[in-house]
Write a structure and sequence with these properties.
208 residues; alpha+beta; Alpha-Beta Plaits; 2 domains; four-stranded antiparallel beta sheet; globular
Length: 208
């Protein structure tokens, strides 16, 4: 259930061995559909798109903002509080489902494929602490390194690591303070990933 004024980690993966993004033009097309469906209901804090999966950190808007930006909110006016919350959660989740459906239909048409592109149910996790928020931003930005799509943080184009300090000014200052701290935090976490992969490769090499 999605709640207003709440941060969520949203993520999903391609179905089977397929990719969500086969070529560069797929990324901006997905983002255009994303802004169309998600901007009315949520503020996007951090994001990262990779060939076969994506991660998002969003904050669902408060009631006042939804009343202004999300026309379907008006359909809830005559419901009692419990029914309104349940129906609102459904409508919010439906926006994400509509995003995935719209992108999949266009993708399938272009590449002459059939069937579901995304895993059926997208994952959502409530962010319930500032520390989790901090770690999640780092995790999202560093996912291309973690999965081997790049070795350098800023080489991956399709991520909010670029310009995060400008787009999230107050949150940036609250969590990281300075540009130096921001860069250092990412570099330290990236080193953790590199150490993990080194250990993992050693284990696999020894056991083979």
């Amino acid at each position: 259930m999605l709640e207003t004024s709440t941060y969520y980690h949203i993520y999903n993966h391609a179905n089977g061995d397929d990719n969500l993004f086969r070529e560069q033009r797929n990324y901006p097309f997905f983002l255009s559909k994303y802004h169309q469906h998600i901007d009315p209901i949520a503020e996007t804090i951090a994001w990262c798109l990779m060939p076969n999966h994506f991660h998002l950190l969003v904050r669902i808007k408060d009631v006042a903002a939804l009343e202004q930006d999300f026309p379907k909110f008006k359909t809830l006016e005559n419901l009692d509080n419990e029914e309104k919350q349940q129906q609102l959660s459904y409508l919010l989740s439906k926006q994400f489902s509509n995003l995935f459906s719209a992108y999949s239909q266009s993708f399938n048409k272009v590449y002459q494929r059939r069937g579901s592109l995304f895993l059926k149910n997208f994952k959502r996790k409530k962010v319930d602490s500032q520390d989790y928020l901090y770690q999640l931003i780092l995790y999202i930005h560093l996912n291309p390194i973690k999965h081997g799509f790049t070795h350098q943080l800023y080489d991956w184009k399709w991520s909010s690591v670029h310009g995060f300090d400008i787009l999230q000014t107050s949150l940036f200052k609250e969590l990281f303070g300075t540009a130096e701290n921001y860069t250092r935090a990412h570099e330290e976490k990236a080193d953790d990933f590199k150490e993990y992969h080194l250990i993992e490769s050693q284990i696999l090499s020894t056991s083979s």
